[in-house]
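User: Reviewer 2 asked us to show a designed sequence for the structure in our supplementary figure. I'm pasting the structure tokens here. Could you produce the per-position amino acids so we can include them in the response letter?
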């Protein structure tokens, strides 16, 4: 006979009811479509800074968790945050502006198209086979 403390009763879901009603939730972020190289770099840099912030928060939470390996995991998350911060710093528009300007001066469009092959200083060419008759 079931009592008041019976655990066989169905309990309410812990997730948000609006999300449960919709079915699967989408947690993947979307990025706006970039029209120029500068916008694409800015979008990727923004995403990297968001991931860096998430990894830093994760490392702080794991630092004080009760698990045996949580300190190790916190150090890994903190290292990932450092690498993301370094990568985002490399995508700084102030740092990339001279490179983009040099690419435009060299003849590249900067819009994803390649410059003509004769203008590029570094080329890899396949060796040509010589046939002797």
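Assistant: Here is a per-position design you can include in the supplement:
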């Amino acid at each position: 006979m079931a009592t008041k403390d019976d655990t066989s009763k169905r309990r309410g879901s812990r997730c948000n009811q609006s999300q449960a009603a919709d079915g699967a939730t989408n947690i993947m972020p979307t990025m706006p479509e970039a029209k120029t190289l500068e916008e694409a770099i800015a979008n990727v840099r923004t995403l990297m800074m968001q991931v860096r912030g998430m990894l830093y928060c994760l490392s702080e939470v794991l630092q004080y968790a009760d698990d045996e390996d949580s300190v190790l995991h916190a150090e890994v998350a903190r290292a990932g945050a450092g690498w993301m911060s370094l990568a985002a710093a490399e995508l700084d528009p102030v740092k990339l502006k001279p490179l983009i300007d040099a690419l435009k001066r060299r003849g590249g469009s900067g819009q994803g198209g390649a410059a003509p092959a004769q203008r590029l200083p570094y080329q890899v060419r396949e060796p040509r086979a010589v046939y002797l008759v």
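For the response letter, you might also mention the following. Residues 37-63 form the longest helix (27 residues). Residues 33-108 form one domain.
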